[in-house]
Amino acid sequence: MNIKRWIARREPNWKRLNTLLQQVEKKGLKSLPASEIRELASLYRSVSADLARARTNEVGNILLQDLQRLTSRGYTQIYQGSRRQDWEAMVEFCRWGFPATVQETFGYTATATGIFLVMALIAWWFAWQDPAFLSLVVPGHLIKTVRDDGKLWMGSIVGVEPLASSGIMTNNLSVCFAAVGGGIVGGLYTVYIMAFNGVIIGAIASLVAQHNLAYPFWAFVFPHGSLELPAIFLAGGAGLIIARAIFFPGKYRRADAMKFYGTQAAQLLFGIVPMLVIAGTIEGFFSPNPAIPDPLKYLAGIGLFALLVMYCSKRRSAEVPSHIMSR
User: Distance from the CA of 225 to the CA of which of 42, 170, 241, 278 falls in 20 to 30 A?
Assistant: First the structure.
């Protein structure tokens, strides 16, 4: 092989690859149009082949080192750079994508919340009027602890906080996944989950109020409930979104509607998971802690809920580009 002729023929490709890599290293892969991204990948493969040939033909250490550096830079930007962009997309979703999705789907979340609250009020009323109804809804050992012992049942968490916290997270995640998945059956199971949980909360609220334990009970609920209950409502909204795609695809074909609305439901689910992890940690370690005064628990719950509302109300300024994660 004529080394000088080979270098003269291949050198323009090396320079072009170097130029593209310099731009990517400064501004990121997204700064390149699609055609140049394809060119970058093609040049990287070509220069990798040149490196292999250079090693075989012993073209000289300096050129060999230059080609090694060039291919290493190409590998970093094409493969490792794509993973970095995935991470950046995740951060972007957390900053702007999730709040935007919450705002776009607020009507569905409000409907799920309404189902929960209406059933909670109905259950509270019936439980207050009829002890027999209360015994049908609330487990007997909880009724006995409140009515006969005059205390709440949360003290059992103290001493086993890690185990309790993980169990709470698992249970809450299963409820939310079921609420989202319930949309597949036309939202019937989603509505059932919202109604059932509303009935449980309403009946328990009536029980503790009848025995003058409402203040410590809600002091326990507020810190983690400020995240846990909104997460459940969002999951219910996600299930209703899927049901809407099935029954009312609108201008879309049903398959396209499932893809479009399913993406929104998945985005809600991405945001719900960390909310439940945080809520489970609070419920295991903070909410039942007898050393923390009840007023501080109320304050923590109100503060967390206020922060959640502020976060979900964020709106991207017009000059910031929108890249909402959809995969």
Answer: 241
Please tell me the distance from the alpha carbon of residue 235 to that of residue 262, in angstroms, as a whole number: 12
The encoded tokens of residue 7 equal 């270098």
Tell if the pTM clears 0.70, that is, is over it.
yes
How far, in Å, CA of 86 to CA of 167, rounded? 31
C-beta separation of 123 from 137 below 8 A: yes
The token pair at 95 is 């900053």
Instruction: Tell me how far apart the alpha carbons of residues 9 and 41 are, in angstroms, rounded to a whole number.
Output: 19
Instruction: Give CA–CA dist 76/40, Å, rounded.
Output: 12
Give the model confidence (pLDDT) of 1-58 as tens digits. 677 888 888 889 889 989 988 888 887 777 788 888 888 888 889 888 888 888 887 7
Give, in degrees to the nearest 5, the angle at Cα 116 between 139 and 126.
55
| DSSP code per residue over 65-125 | HHHHHHHHHHHIIIIIHHHHHHHHHHHHIIIIIHHHHHHHTHHHHHHHHHHHHHHHHHHHH
CA dist 112 → 17, 168, 213 (Å): 54, 22, 28
> How many Å is the Cα radius of gyration of the chain?
29
Residue 303, pLDDT score: 96
Per the structure block, which two tokens stand in for 204? 């328990």
Look up residue 300 and give its two tokens. 């923590």
Specify the residue for token string 């994508």: 97
Q: Report the helix count and the strand count for the chain, using DSSP H and E.
A: 13, 0
Q: CA 132, CA 144: separation in Å to the nearest integer? A: 14
